[in-house]
Amino acid sequence: MMGETHEMEGATAIPLVEMRSIRVSYGGVHAVDGVSIDLHEGEIVGLVGGNGAGKSTLMKVLSGAQLPDSGEIYVGGKPAHIQNPRDAKAYAIECIYQTLALSDNLDAPANVFLGRELTQGAGSLDDSAMEDATRRVMGRLNPRFRAFKTPVMSLSGGQRQSVAIARAVHFNARIMIMDEPTASLGPAETAQVRDLVRQLKEEGLGIFLISHDIHDVYDLSDRISVMYQGRIVDTVHKAKVDTDDVLAMIILGKKPEEASSEELAELQI
Amino acid sequence: MTNVADTAPVPGKREIPAGRLQRLRDLVTATEIDLRLFGMLLALAAILLVFNVLTDGRFFRPVNMVTLSVQAVSVAILATGMVLVIVSRNIDLSVGSLVGFIAMTYALLMTDWLPNILGMGPDFPFRWLIALALGIGLGAAFGAVQGFIIAYIGVPSFVVTLGGLLSIRGAIWYLSNGAAVTGLDPTFRLIGGGGRGSIGETLTWGLGIVGCVAVVVLLLNGRRQRRRFGFPVRPVWAEVLLAVLGCGALLALAAFANGNYLAPGLATEYARERGITEPPGGLKVPAGFPLPIILLIGVAVVMTWIAKRRRFGRYVYAYGGNPGAAELAGINTRLTILKTFVLMGVLAALSAAVVASRLNGATLDIGSSYELYVIAAAVVGGTSFAGGIGTIPGAVLGAFVMQSLAYGLSFMGVNSPGQNVVAGIVLILAVAFDSWNRRRGTR
Questions:
Q1: Residue range A17-92+173-266, CATH number
Q2: What residues in chain A have their Cβ under 8 A from chain B's Cβ atoms?
Q3: Single pTM value for the model
Q4: Predicted-complex ipTM score
Q5: What are the φ/ψ torsions at residue B381 (nearest 5 degrees)?
């Protein structure tokens, strides 16, 4: 499986980001076992797989939250050295974590600018400028958002999600990682996030989309990478598969043509 | 500061239409008044009032209030730093021992080391400042060592500072071979207050006016900042009200401090130095603000600025709210934690200067159990052990609440075990009230 070449859209273009032979192991368990994956401008790559398949760990390597044991990352064709979240942000890689990673006691502007605060004069925080910038980006993402002065702990799930997304969007990400972006949202808010994902794609961002929800991924993605026990089963163009094929790969960890008819029958599909 | 909600007409709570209630809420939000802090001010006022009634009006007098305040200073200074330590999910149990160690260092510096080792006799210029600088450096160094072990090696702060509490307290014995040391530099002793360590009538009024100007400048600046981006600003009447009340409070404090007169002996000296013949009843010389109070105000202002307006402060709160999020945001969380302990060490040096000055020296047990009073002050002031929540003005008020209780009880003749019983119960009640209030607030 390692070093496997998969179909690429516009194979001549240099991928926005390319991860090669990434390995991560926790105490002898290979959470990510030699995975290669790439992403192009204006492309959404869905990353699916069961619990513990290694999706989140792989993405944490890209966002700097997890150091890989081995493997390389190329951004725009050049080797990238990502040791921590700060490095990743320097490569315009932004991640929206499943847990949202918000400081609940701080307000929305403080969270949006956390670690990258605007200052004025002798390095004092410029809260008004940060609030202004947050209002602008929110005007685009969630125009009904008004709670710029309240700690985010008292916001709704959708509002908190908006704050997490605003943080990624404001800093002009080129590569965005979204880990279960709709997990905690109601139907209306989910639709809103989907629209946003499409909008960001239009703007030319490359997006890795992690989700349990196969339909979510199938609707939004251009390509889908299926992970199983730390490896990539296959990366497929959406047009060439249906959701049942993807489900079969998620569950069996094999490409449909490799699976026996008994196994497929057991899945009752 | 004021609570605008209370000044607006509120005719019988139940009849308020929902719209008006909402407007009131909006107003409180817009004026950014900290209701919790306001409540604490009321509690403090209530405590002073109750003691005043119980003592037939003998309690609430300038001389008592000045003494009470000066006694609260050393704990209050430490509490401003303890807030940041607790907000970032740590604890510092070593502050009391560190205060003792540095106080002993000051005493030895001025009685022995400076004159006998470094050749700086009593007439050497700025001896007090040299001693203070060395003390601050020592505090910062102790803080850095403890902070390093906590942040970079990963030993829990409870353990590290418990070890600090024991070993630093023990080390004081070796500094002085078990002896108490007295005889500080006279200039240094002014830090402790008293008649000579007070700034006098004119400067007290001057300081009140400077404070007034600062309040107005802060309000105007806040307004300008919000105008810059076209954000809603407070209504002008609210701004004026805040300015008038802020100014009024400061000038009232100045007047109150000037209502405290120099002790008869000092007043006689004062008269002799200026060639004034003392009237028969003795000369009444207003003492004004004591220097330790001014030191505390300075510390509280600087610490609030650090907490609210600096990246470091923002990171302390962010880490306390969600350590993982702070890490993922690219914050150097370890360095942030280390810095909180360095700051705590610096504050311990300032607190030690006040304590040593008041004693004119140092004993072996100086500063013992301070860590408990300091933690109590921070917690009564609204700091939460869950992390991420707590304010510096709250902690200072907390220190004053605790000291008012202790002073008031002792004024009424309750002995110190009795004061401890009350202090403990108040601590628990305050936190119980707070958690009840928070649960109600967050649905």
A1: 3.40.50.300
A2: 63-65, 84-86, 89, 95, 97, 99-106, 110, 114-117, 119, 123-125, 127-129, 131-132, 135, 149, 153-154
A3: 0.89
A4: 0.87
A5: -80, 5
